[in-house]
Amino acid sequence: MFKLINKWICKLAKWVLSKNAPPGEHLAYINDEEAHYLKKRGGAGVEWNDTGIKSYFIHKKKHRKKIGRWFKKNVIKPTVKFFKKIGSGVANAVGSLFGGTFGMPDMGSVSNAQASNDGILLNKAGTLHNIPVVYGQRKVGGTVVFLDTEGSRNEKLYVAMALCEGEIEGYDKIFIDGVDWNDSRFTNYRNIERFEGDPDQIAKGPLTELSTWTSNHRLRGLAYLGCKFTMPEIKSQDDADKNPWGGVPQLQAVIRGKKIASAATAGASDYATETAAATTTSSNPADIILDYLRNPVYGRGLSNDRIQFSSFASARQTYDTTVTYADGGQGKLFTMNAVIDTGDSVMNNLKKMLVQCRSGLPYIQGKFHLKPLDSGSTTSPVDPTPTEVFHIEEQHITDGVEIIDPGTRNQANQVRVSYIDPNAAGGNSDWSMNEVIYPEVGSARDLEMLAEDGNKRITKEYNLEFITNPSQAGYHAKLMCENERKVKTLSVSCTAELHFVEIGDIVKMTYAPLGINGNFYRVMAMEITQNYEIELTLREHQPGVYGFGTNNVYYGVRKQRQYVGDTQRVTRYVYNHDTDRYEPVEHVLDSSLPTFPNTDIPVANIQPTDFAITATTLLSKQDSPTNPIQTNTFTVHIEDYLVDALNDIYIAKYNPLTQEYEARTKIIPGIHRTASETYQVNVPFEMDGSTHTFVVIGIVQGLKIYKSVSFSFVSFATIIRPIIQGP
């Protein structure tokens, strides 16, 4: 043990001497000036071992507090002071994982996540909006930074749409008003030049037709679209029908984001040189976090000497581990395709990145280390057999073990994770929010956890806005749920033998007084005390949950399939513009599809009366010639267990023409709940004096559909004659 202590003290003394040695000199010898320097700081100046070299660090007990105070003042405080420039609450004396014991950053609610993603896809105008940074592949809208018109009829519209920081790798798709820009309707009516944000890009394309857009208008370093849209001259109804524009076109682009250096080779040169040489973007979290830490414009601007590059290279390999996804295909353990809000703090953006690759960023000996929080195995991050770096036994513990958290404070029995789904609309580059749930409602694991928690549903929701893979989102949900259940957090003071342990390492502990027998723990924080003891914060580690399994995960379906199924053949009428008549159109039936609504019951004890419309109250009437409608407040009874089981809940109205119930208004439990098992929602419908029939429709997994008992009543009749157009 003393050999280890001696080795550690020598290393520390060597660092202090080298730091204060004359220029060009390292630890070659201890001269009189250095000896005086150390003695002033409490050094004993006596022989420590049989080498004959005097120790100026620790020997006499009375000097320990002096040295401790010096160490705190000259080593710890500068470290913490530097780190506070990045953000508070991250480093203790030696360091801690980013976010303490893996605390969550400000991830926002699921409803805010939807609003945030909608904002990413929208077009904005003005110069006061933050320009985002895109890593990997994402669909984005943009900010209109220039707009002008030309032509005798002002028929030519010129737009400069800034998308993100450059230089990006390239463009995959462009959409105009939600339609692919190569659609024939835009032929001859649009001209769009794509700019990647090269620092030396020049002005070119349709905008240069304007006298107000000169060769100096280069928008260097910004990825943007330079557009010209032409309004056709309208002389006939046919011209009007072919006009593709209904206003200022809304633009979106699927892009391959900012070119960044690979963490596998980064650090050999300065940031600017390595970024200029980069040829591709990356979805590897190590590459992304490293770029954000080093970038001086939108990131932290750290110099190379503040980063432990080898840890980022190692983490990069971990994230690239091949796993099997829910659909049977194979892919990487973790990827991120991120749109970074440059208006948010550097600290919060970094925390979001770390949470979404389940990693820590400890600050150790003056450098940032990237540490994936995986199973702890040396062979694979998903292998359930960890390799501990140290086995803590009673002889290593100096002052007992304290239980900080018994492991029940934050546990949930259901975790819902929202993520960005590129294929939410069936492969149509929708890039909208989707959801996974762990465990699947009614599964064996779900029932087991409910029983452990007294049959009380405890749900947590997380927004992982940089995740675009459903299997990865499901893996996150599983770990977020299982890693919070019955996981104790301990504080323990140990001998200096543990000085080499690093934040994020896995240790084993045997401590009979608390019944701990070879349990695994992850080091979450570490501090060196004035008495040269090592204080550790340890969190119980469950390596068995890290297997990349897809069992017990419900994967949401963004777009509901509409069925006709094997119902009786009916006739409906559709307006034909060519003949100016309503003509009959028959349903195409497919007996292989279920009848709508499907009567399969996903939960054994569910009954239609468990959710039903119980009353309606007239809210308003709008008696107009063209659109007479009334709006009623529907009071709906929904059993609590159904709120957990259902993915979507709608008020649906029966359409006698199609003989189908059609969704009118979605019920959002978190918004429309007014009392226990009671919800109120406003529903508009036709004011025509006829009987209207409504049901509550519940949808599970987008395919399993069931309905409540029906509710019918007669609407008010309009007293205003409709406007008759044409002869």
Describe this structure as you would to a colleague.
The protein is of the alpha+beta class. Among the domains are: 2-70, no CATH class; 137-235 and 247-258, Immunoglobulin-like; 392-407 and 486-546; 414-485, no CATH class; 585-714, Sandwich (Immunoglobulin-like), CATH 2.60.40. Helices cover 19% and strands 32% of the residues. The longest helix has 23 residues, at 64-86. The N and C termini lie far apart (103 Å).
Q: What is the general shape?
A: flat
List the total number of helices. Answer: 13
Percent of residues in helices comes to 10-25%
- Mean pLDDT across all amino acids: 77
Radius of gyration: 32 Å
End-to-end distance: 103 Å
* CATH topological fold name of the domain at 585-714: Immunoglobulin-like
**CATH class identity of the domain at 585-714:** Mainly Beta
Largest sheet: 7 strands, mixed
The structure class reads alpha+beta
CATH hierarchy: architecture of the domain at 585-714: Sandwich
| Count of β-strands | 41
Q: Unreliable runs, pLDDT <50, ≥5 residues?
A: 1-6, 40-93, 99-111, 558-575, 584-604
Strand portion, in percent? 25-35%
Can you tag this structure with a few keywords?
disordered N terminus, alpha+beta, Immunoglobulin-like, 19% helix, five-stranded mixed beta sheet, 727 residues, 13 helices
